[in-house]
Every structure is written in C-alpha cells, then in structure tokens.
Design brief:
Elements (H helix, E strand, L loop, with lengths): L3 E12 L10 E17 L8 E5 L4 E4 L8 H13 L7 E7 L9 H16 L6 H16 L5 H8 L3 E3 L6 E2 L6 E7 L6 H14 L1 H23 L4 H17 L4 H12 L4 E5 L6 E5 L5 H10 L4 E7 L1
Parallel strand pairs: 3-5
Antiparallel strand pairs: 1-2, 2-5, 2-6, 3-4, 6-7, 8-10, 8-11, 9-10
The protein binds (3R)-3-hydroxy-3-methyl-5-(phosphonooxy)pentanoic acid.
C-alpha cells in the first residue's frame, strides 16, 4: 500500500464575515501560499486498527485510540471511517504539517480537516468527492467553532474564490480582473467561537440594530461581487472601508487591527479591513502591484508579525 498525500490551502474572508453566520452572503478566497499537508502511509510495526498520529506543529504524537473522540484530528478520522462504513483500518501513520498560522483567521482548522479527509479516504481506497469532503470538514468545524457558517470548509475544499450563503451550495464567480491582497497578521490569537458568541449576545440584546448591520454587510458583499465580476476593482477599496466600519460597530475590531488598517491606507492601499472573526488574527488590504512592498513594509512597521501577498485570480 503506497503513501497518500493531500494538501489544502489557507483562506481569508474578503467580505461578509459575521453577517454570514446570520445567512447573509460572504466572499472568501483561498491563500495558496500557506498550506496544510497530510500524509497517510502503512505502518507495518503496528497492529491492524492502530493509527499513529504525528502533528509536530501542535506537539501531538499519539495513537488514535488514546485521544478523546472530540479531539479535532481524532474526530476527523472517525468521521471518515463512519462515512466509508469502515470499522477496522489497516495499521497506518498520519503525519500533518502546516504553514498556516493557527487561530489567526486563515482557516487552519478547516484546512487540516480537508487535507486529512482527502489523504485518509484515499488511503482507505475510497477517495471522497469534494462535496463530501466539505460536509465532513464542516462537522469537525462545529467542534472548533460551535456555530460555524460553513464558509471555511467550503472555500478551502474547492480552493477557489466563493460566494457563500449559509445552507446553500457555494457559488463560484468570475474574477474579471485579477487583484492583489496584502494580508497583515496581528499575531494575536483570537478564538472564533468566543467572538461569534459575543456578537450573538449583542444581537440578542439589540436585534433590530444588528439585523440592520447584517443587511448593510450583505449589500456590500453583493456590490463587491458585481464589481469583481465586471472588473470594476476600483470599487472594492471603498467597499472594504465600508465593511470594516460596520465590523467596528459589531465590536469585533481591535486597536491593533485598526492600526494595521490605517497603516495600509497611509501607504497607498485602495482599501483595507479586518478579515475573519476579528479581535486579533489578520487584516487585508487591496494594493496596486507597484505598492505591494511599500504596504508590506508599512504593515510590519505597524506591528504585523507577518505579511502575505495573495493574488486573487
Ligand atoms: O475562522 P475565521 O476567523 O476566519 O472566522 C470565521 C468567520 C465568521 O464569519 C466570523 C464565523 C463563521 O463561521 O463564518
């Protein structure tokens, strides 16, 4: 039995985070430069049924049966076995490595799930379709996030820009003119489920106000899709500004994120906003090709622990 390898990219949410939890649309794009790699290979030294899991990035070196069922990697492997109706797997070793920063809005949890589901199902001789990979990764996302919208597993599985509405099949759309995002990472870990929970509480306390915000974000996402499809990229900067302003009102920005957004704009970015759950994690800026280095430099000077250039095409 040979080794099976699968990789999955990171992602950023371009428009629509948080409102997407409340059934408004969002747009997310893959970030190909950062990836998870999962390799499953036979391990003849072990008994049938044993899966040895190595994930050096998180210091994990354990056998599947030693892990609690809700441990995300264990949950992922169990989900694949259930899906394929397999009760006893051949003795094997799973190795997971990743260049995606964790808890930073890059979808690292979903990327791990997608890569592991693909590699493990292929190893078991029944590679799963993209739809099933995404659905199983969504089940695991619920352990990480509580009430995920499903956008992370979707954009990472299909590895292309998606227009996403919770509970509906993802829509691909045309990128008429490629554009460049410069991502700045605050380096501050942020818990998506905590921030999503805080927004939920605020929404429950003031539903009319928050529904108004979510509608406004939904309208921005719609306008952004139309701009991207018709090649009016110059509109995107303004839409990013508007989206960031509403995210501030939702209470999910932070002084560090606002500072990076300001730094990118001062360096000539056409627009900038926080991306993902907020309170930490990353922000992104829309940048003309000749200003990329200048904006990256400005972001690092303003405190970004890393910058990533992500072409959207
Ligand atoms: O995982 P993050 O940080 O990219 O955030 C997910 C985006 C939210 O809209 C805040 C939550 C969700 O499930 O869509």
């Amino acid at each position: 039995m040979p080794a099976f390898t699968a990789t999955a990219p990171g992602k950023v949410i371009l428009f629509g985070e948080h409102a997407v939890v409340y059934h408004r649309p969002a747009i997310a794009v893959p970030v190909q430069k950062i990836r998870v790699r999962a390799v499953v290979e036979p391990d003849p030294r072990r008994r049938p049924g044993q899966v040895h899991i190595l994930a050096p990035d998180i210091g994990l070196d354990a056998c599947l049966d030693e892990l609690p069922a809700e441990q995300p990697l264990a949950a992922t492997l169990h989900a694949v076995c259930r899906e394929l109706g397999i009760s006893r797997v051949p003795a094997c070793r799973l190795r997971v490595t990743s260049s995606i920063p964790v808890a930073s809005g890059f979808g690292s949890g979903a990327a791990v799930s997608v890569a592991v589901i693909r590699a493990f199902s292929a190893f078991l001789g029944q590679p799963l379709s993209d739809d099933r990979v995404s659905a199983l990764a969504f089940e695991v996302e619920k352990i990480h996030h509580g009430t995920p919208s499903g956008i992370d597993n979707t954009v990472i599985t299909y590895a292309m820009p998606v227009y996403f509405v919770r509970g509906q099949p993802p829509e691909r759309f045309k990128i008429s003119k490629p554009f460049i995002l410069v991502i700045g990472d605050t380096g501050i870990a942020s818990s998506t489920s905590l921030v999503v929970g805080d927004v939920r509480q605020a929404w429950q306390a003031n539903p009319a106000q928050f529904e108004y915000y979510f509608d406004a974000i939904g309208a921005i996402v719609q306008a952004a899709r139309e701009a991207i499809e018709s090649g009016r990229n110059e509109d995107l900067g303004r839409l990013m500004q508007e989206n960031h302003l509403i995210l501030q009102k939702l209470g999910v920005s932070s002084p560090e994120l606002d500072h990076l957004v300001e730094a990118a704009l001062s360096a000539g970015a056409r627009g900038a906003k926080l991306s993902g759950a907020g309170r930490g994690g990353n922000m992104l800026a829309l940048v003309d090709g000749d200003l990329v280095e200048r904006v990256e430099h400005a972001l690092r000077t303003a405190g970004a622990v890393r910058t990533i250039v992500a072409p959207v095409e």
